C-alpha cells in the first residue's frame, strides 16, 4: 500500500514520536534560550539596514544621510514592543502567543485574523531569511552570483528535511553560531568606531558612486513625496522587529522562575538587537555605503553609468570589507556568521508554524487529526506546508529580498497590534478583580505600557499598510484573507456537525434495532469467504443470506458447485446482472431488503484482502471499495470488513507495528 | 468526496451503461460493416506511399522510379494476409482476435506477447493516424503549418472525450465518409489515368526538383546498402497492412451467415485497399511526385537549394493538386476525405483497445475489476490509457509521421505472424479429429493458406525488425516487453493468491469463533456513537466494551460525563495516551485482548461520518481511516463501520443512485 511506503519513508525521515513527559527535560537556561529565540529578531540586521538605505537612495545621496534618524525610529519602536511583550510574558506564563491573547481577549474573529497573519508571516520569514542567506553566500563566493533563487530553494528543501527528521534537542547547536554572530557584528562595530576615532576608517567600495535620484526627487527628501519615502524607509526598516514575539510563545520552555527569566531574556534581546542595528547603520554612514534598488541606472561613477557586471553587496558585507579588508579572515567570519544566523531564523519558523497549526486544529480551525502536538502528523504536515509556501514565494520573486520585504511585516504588525490591544483588555478585566493596591499599581503600569505599545504598533501598521500596500503587501493580505476564510469555514463546518450530531431527546441510548439481518458477499469460494461466513455466523444474526452476482455464467456455476460441495448450511442467492455489473445488483438487493423490513439492522459482511504492496491494492478490493462507498449512504446498513491477511502483508504489518 | 465529483463528471461524459441484450441490435450488414472495419486499413494509403517514396529518394531520383515495384510487393503481402485472415474468420466465428488465437493454439506466452504487441500498436495507430490527419489539415489550411503536434493533440483529446461519452451506435456515421474517401481516391485515379492516356496529365509541384542522394548512394540503388534501403522502403510501405485484422475481431457483429459475410467483406477490403495503393503509387510516378525526408538539404531547384519555407505536401495532396488544380473543389474533397478517414482510423483503436483490455482482465492479466465488458469502467480506463499513450508519442515525436512509422508495424507483424502460426496449429489439431474427406480437404487448403501467410508475415517481420530496429522499433519493442512483464506479474500474483486462498482440508466451514468480543470506539458522545452502540448491542456480543483515548484531559472528562448522564449500560474504558496519540493506545488494547483470548472474534465498531463534499472527507474520518488500516493487519479482528449520514451527504447519495 502507498501508506506503507509513506510510513516507511516517514519513519526514516521523521523518527519516533516524543513522549509528553519528555517535554520537561528541555527547560532552558537564559544563556541557551536567548540564542534559540533570538536568531529571528537578530538576523533582520542582515537586511533591514539595506532596505532603509536603498529606499532613501531614491531621493539621492543626501537623503541617505538621514538613515540614522530612520534607524533611531525603528529602535524606538523595537524597544517599545520589547517593553510591551515583557508584560505579555508576565501575564501569560503558560506561553500566550499572539493568537491566544487575541482570541481570549478580543474574540474569535480577532484571534483568527492574528492566526492568519502569523501563518503568512512564518512563510515570509522563511522566504526572506533564506533569500538573504543566499545573497550572503554569493557575497562570499561571487561565482554563485545570480543563483540566489536556486540556493534559497535548496536551503528550504534541506531545512524542511532536517525538520522532518527532528532536531528538537538541538538547543546548544543554536547557541554557538548565534553568539559568534553577535560577537562578530558587535566586534566589527567596536573596531569600526576605533578606526573612526583614530582616523583609520576607510571608505566602502560603493562610496565613490553618486546616486541618480528617482524622477520627482531631484530636490531630495522634500514635500509629501519625501515624507512618504521616509515612511517607506521606516516601514522597510521595521523588518528588524520580526521575531521579537518569539520569546512570549516560549515561556514554558524557560527554567524557573519562567516569566522573570523570559522577561529578562526579552530585554537582553531588545538591547542587543538595538545595538547591532545602531552599529550597522552608523558604520554604513561612516564608510559611506551606498545601496540602491538598481545599480545599473541609479549609480554613476565619474558621471557615467557603472560598467556592466557590478555586483552590489549587502551593507554588512561592504562594511566588513572596508574595516577588515576584502578576503580577510574576519570578513569571511562576519559574512558566514550572518548567513548562518539567517538559516537559523528560517528554522524558528519551522518550529513555530506547526505548533501554531496544532493549536488551531485544537480549536477546530484546521482538521482535527492535526491537533495532538505530540504527534508527528501535525508537525510534518506543517513543515511541508511551510516549505511549499516559502518555495512558491522564493521562485515567484526570484529570491529578491527587497521585493519580498514588501510583503513582510504587515502580518507581524497585525499580530503585534492585536496582541497589545488584547493585553490592554486583559489588564482592564484583571483590574476589576484585583483588590491589592500594589498588585493594582503594577497592573495599571503594565496596562499603560501595553497601551503605548498598542498605539505605537497601530501607527506603524497604518504606515506599513499605506506605504507597502501597492508594493506587494496586498499579496500578503490576500493570502491572510484566504487562510482566514478556509479556517473559518472549517470551524463553521465542525460547529454545524456538532449541532447536527448533538444527542437530543429523540436519541435514546436504549432503543435497539428489532432484528439483525446479515448478508455475506461471495465472489469465489475461498478461505476469506469462509472466514467471513464464520464471523457472520458467530454474530448469530436473526437471518443470514449469502449472495453472489452472476457476471459470468461459467464462474457462477463454479462458485455454486464449490458452495454446495462444502455443504455450507447457508443458501447462496444468485443475483442476475443484466449490465454485467457488480455493484448495482447488490445495492438493489440491499435496498429491497430495507424496504421490506425498515426497522431491521442490515450487516453486510465483505471479505477483504489485506495486501503488502501498493500495487496489490490496485488489483484487489477495488470492487469491495466501491460497494462499501455506496453502502455507506444507506441508513440502517452497517458494513463489516472481514480482513484476510495475505502472506505479502506480513512485512507491511511489521512496518506498521514498529511505527 | 472526490468520487462523487468524478462520478458526476463521468455521468455527463460517459452516459449510462449498456444492457447485455442490446448487443443483438447492432448486427451489421456488409455495406455498413465494410466502412466500419475498413477505415484503419484504407487510411494507410494516406501515408504509406509517402514513406516508400521518401525512403527511396535517399538513393536519388532514379531510385524513386522503383516505387511501383515496392508497392507491388506490399500488395502481394496484403492480399496474402487477407487470404489468411479469411481462414481465421471461418475457423473462429465467435470473433477470434489474434490474442485469442495465439493464446489458444500457441500457449499463454505467445498469447501475452501478441496482446502486448496489439496494445502498443493500438497506441501507435492513434498517434500515426492523428499526426497524418493533422498534416492533411495543414495541406488544406497552409497557415496551420508547423502546428501539427498541437492539432494532433487536440484531435486525440476530442476523440477520447467523444469515446468516453459513447458512440457505439454510430455505425452509419462511419459509412458515408468512408465511401466518399474510397470514391474520391479511386475517382481521382480514374481521372488521372484518363488524363495520362489523353496526354493531359500535368507534373506535380515537386516534379521540377532534383534530389541530392544521401552519402553512399551516389550510384543509386546498388550493392548491399541499396538492397537494405529497398527493404526499408518496403517495411515502411507495409504500414498499409495495419487494420486488416480488424474484421476478424468483429465477426460476431456481422449479419448471418456471419463467417461468410465477414470473409466476403475482408476480400472486398483487400481488393479496394490494393487498388487504392496501386492507384496512388502509379499517379505519384506519372506526375513525378518527389518526396524527401528533409526538403531543405535533399532538394535542388536549378542546382540551388529551395528557398526557405517550402512546405512538402503528402503524395495524395500533390496528386490531387496536379490532376484537379490547387484550390479546386475536388482537391479539397480528396484532402478532406483523407483527413476524416484518418480520424476514423484512430477511432477504431479507441474501440479495440478497451475491448482487448477487458478480455485480458477476464484472463487475469489486468486488474479483475476491469473485466466486465458491459461496464464502462474498463472502457473509460482503456480510453484514457490509450489517449495518454498516444499523446506521449505525438508530443515526443512532434507529430512527425515518418518518425512514428518507424515504431509502427513491428507490433502488427508480431501478431500477424503469431496468429498465422496459431492457425496452422489449429488446423493440424482439427485435422486429427476430422473424418469427412471434403471437410479435411477444405482444412488442408486452409492450413496451406495460413502456412503461406505465416511464411510471408514472418519474413516481413524479420525485414521490419532488421530495417527498423535502430530507427525506433526498439522503443515499441521495449514498450511491449514492459507491458508483457506487468501483465505477466499481475497474472502470477492472481495465481499465487488463488493458491494461497484455495479451500483445503484445514478450512472447515463449520468452525466458529468461541465468543464474540465487541469494542466500540468513542470520541465524543454524539448521535453516531449512540447508533454504533445500538448496532453493537443488537448484535448481542458475548462482551461489549466502549473505549476512548485520553488525549485532552478536559475533553475526556466531558465525554465521560456525557456518557454517564445518558446512563448507558456499558462501561466506558479510558485509555491513557502518553504520546497524545490516538491509534497506538487502541492498537495496544486490541492486541492485549487478542493475547488474552486468542480464539475469540473481536469486532471493532467504528462510527463513521458519511459526508457529501470532498473537502469534508479531509476534515473527518481521518483517524478512523488510520485505525481501520492498522486493524486490518490483525487476524481475528473484524471492523464494523457504522455510518452516520450527515445532511450534506444527501446530494451525494442522489448522484450515486442515479448512476
The quaternary state of the protein chains shown equals homodimer
DSSP summary: helix tally of chain A = 25
Q: Quickly name the level 1 CATH class of the largest domain in chain A.
A: Mainly Alpha
Radius of gyration of chain A: 33 Å
Terminus-to-terminus distance of chain A: 15 Å
Mean pLDDT across residues of chain A:
86
Question: Sheet with the most strands of chain A?
Answer: 5 strands, parallel
Overall number of domains of chain A: 2
The name CATH uses for the topology of the largest domain in chain A is Amino acid/polyamine transporter I
Report the count of strand segments of chain A: 8
Task: Identify the overall geometry of chain A.
Answer: elongated
Search tags:
2 domains, 65% helix, Amino acid/polyamine transporter I, homodimer, 659 residues, 5-stranded parallel β-sheet, disordered N terminus, 3-stranded antiparallel β-sheet, 8 strands, Rossmann fold, transmembrane (chains A, B), alpha/beta
What's a quick, concise take on this entry?
Two copies of one chain form a homodimer. The first copy, chain A, is α/β, with parallel strands linked by helices. Chain A contains 25 helices and eight strands.
Amino acid at each position: 500500500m502507498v501508506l506503507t511506503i509513506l510510513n516507511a519513508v516517514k519513519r526514516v525521515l521523521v523518527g519516533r514520536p516524543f513522549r509528553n513527559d519528555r517535554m520537561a527535560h528541555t527547560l532552558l537556561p537564559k544563556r541557551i534560550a536567548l540564542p534559540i529565540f533570538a536568531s529571528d529578531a537578530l538576523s533582520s540586521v542582515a537586511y533591514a539596514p539595506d532596505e532603509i538605505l536603498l529606499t532613501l537612495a531614491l531621493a539621492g545621496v543626501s537623503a541617505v544621510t538621514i538613515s540614522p534618524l530612520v534607524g533611531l525610529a525603528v529602535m524606538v519602536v523595537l524597544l517599545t514592543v520589547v517593553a510591551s511583550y515583557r508584560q505579555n510574558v508576565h501575564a501569560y506564563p503558560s506561553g500566550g502567543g499572539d493568537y491566544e491573547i487575541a482570541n481570549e481577549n478580543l474574540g474569535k474573529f480577532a484571534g483568527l485574523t492574528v492566526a492568519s497573519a502569523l501563518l503568512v508571516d512564518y512563510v515570509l520569514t522563511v522566504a526572506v531569511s533564506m533569500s538573504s542567506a543566499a545573497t550572503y553566500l554569493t557575497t562570499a563566493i561571487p561565482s554563485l552570483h545570480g543563483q540566489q533563487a536556486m540556493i534559497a530553494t535548496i536551503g528550504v528543501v534541506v531545512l524542511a528535511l532536517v525538520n522532518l527528521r527532528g532536531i528538537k534537542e538541538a538547543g546548544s547547536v543554536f547557541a554557538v553560531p548565534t553568539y559568534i554572530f553577535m560577537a562578530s557584528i558587535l566586534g566589527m562595530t567596536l573596531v569600526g568606531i576605533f578606526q573612526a576615532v583614530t582616523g583609520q576608517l576607510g571608505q566602502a567600495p560603493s562610496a565613490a558612486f553618486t546616486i541618480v535620484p528617482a524622477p520627482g526627487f531631484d530636490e531630495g527628501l522634500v514635500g509629501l513625496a519625501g515624507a512618504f519615502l521616509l515612511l517607506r524607509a521606516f516601514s522597510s526598516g521595521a523588518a528588524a522587529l520580526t521575531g521579537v514575539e518569539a520569546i512570549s510563545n516560549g515561556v514554558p520552555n524557560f527554567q524557573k522562575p519562567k516569566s522573570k527569566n523570559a522577561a529578562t531574556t526579552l530585554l537582553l534581546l531588545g538591547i542587543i538587537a538595538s545595538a547591532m542595528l545602531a552599529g550597522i547603520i552608523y558604520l554604513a554612514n561612516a564608510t559611506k555605503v551606498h545601496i540602491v534598488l538598481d545599480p545599473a541606472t541609479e549609480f554613476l561613477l565619474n558621471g557615467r553609468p557603472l560598467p556592466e557586471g557590478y555586483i552590489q553587496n549587502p551593507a554588512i558585507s561592504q562594511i566588513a570589507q572596508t574595516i577588515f579588508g576584502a578576503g580577510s579572515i574576519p570578513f569571511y567570519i562576519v559574512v558566514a556568521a550572518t548567513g548562518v544566523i539567517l538559516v537559523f531564523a528560517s528554522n524558528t519558523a519551522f518550529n513555530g508554524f506547526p505548533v501554531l497549526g496544532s493549536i488551531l486544529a485544537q480549536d477546530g480551525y484546521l482538521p482535527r487529526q492535526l491537533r495532538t502536538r505530540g504527534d508527528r502528523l501535525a508537525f510534518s504536515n506543517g513543515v511541508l506546508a511551510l516549505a511549499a509556501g516559502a518555495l512558491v514565494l522564493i521562485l515567484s520573486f526570484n529570491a529578491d529580498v527587497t521585493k519580498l520585504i514588501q510583503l513582510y511585516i504587515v502580518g507581524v504588525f497585525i499580530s503585534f497590534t492585536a496582541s497589545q490591544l488584547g493585553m490592554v483588555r486583559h489588564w482592564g478585566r484583571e483590574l476589576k478583580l484585583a483588590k491589592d493596591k500594589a498588585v493594582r499599581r503594577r497592573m495599571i503600569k503594565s496596562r499603560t505600557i501595553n497601551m503605548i505599545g498598542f498605539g505605537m504598533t497601530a501607527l506603524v501598521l497604518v504606515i506599513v499598510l499605506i506605504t507597502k500596500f501597492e508594493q506587494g503587501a496586498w499579496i500578503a493580505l490576500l493570502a491572510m484573507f484566504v487562510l482566514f476564510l478556509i479556517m473559518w469555514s472549517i470551524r463553521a463546518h465542525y460547529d454545524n456537525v456538532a449541532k447536527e450530531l448533538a444527542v437530543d431527546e429523540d436519541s435514546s441510548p436504549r432503543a435497539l434495532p428489532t432484528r439483525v439481518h446479515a448478508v455475506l458477499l461471495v465472489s469465489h469460494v475461498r478461505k476469506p469467504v469462509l472466514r467471513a461466513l464464520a464471523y457472520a455466523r458467530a454474530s448469530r444474526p436473526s437471518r443470514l443470506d449469502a449472495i453472489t452476482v452472476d457476471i459470468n455464467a461459467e464462474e457462477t456455476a463454479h462458485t455454486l458447485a464449490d458452495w454446495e460441495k462444502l455443504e455450507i448450511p447457508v443458501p447462496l442467492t444468485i443475483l442476475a446482472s443484466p449490465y454485467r455489473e457488480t455493484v448495482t445488483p447488490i445495492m438493489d438487493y440491499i435496498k429491497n431488503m430495507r424496504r421490506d423490513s425498515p426497522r431491521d439492522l442490515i450487516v453486510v459482511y465483505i471479505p477483504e484482502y489485506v495486501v503488502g504492496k501498493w500495487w496489490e491494492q490496485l488489483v484487489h478490493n477495488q470492487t469491495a471499495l466501491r460497494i462499501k462507498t455506496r453502502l455507506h449512504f444507506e441508513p440502517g446498513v452497517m458494513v463489516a470488513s472481514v480482513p484476510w491477511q495475505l502472506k505479502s502483508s506480513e512485512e507491511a504489518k511489521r512496518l506498521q507495528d514498529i511505527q
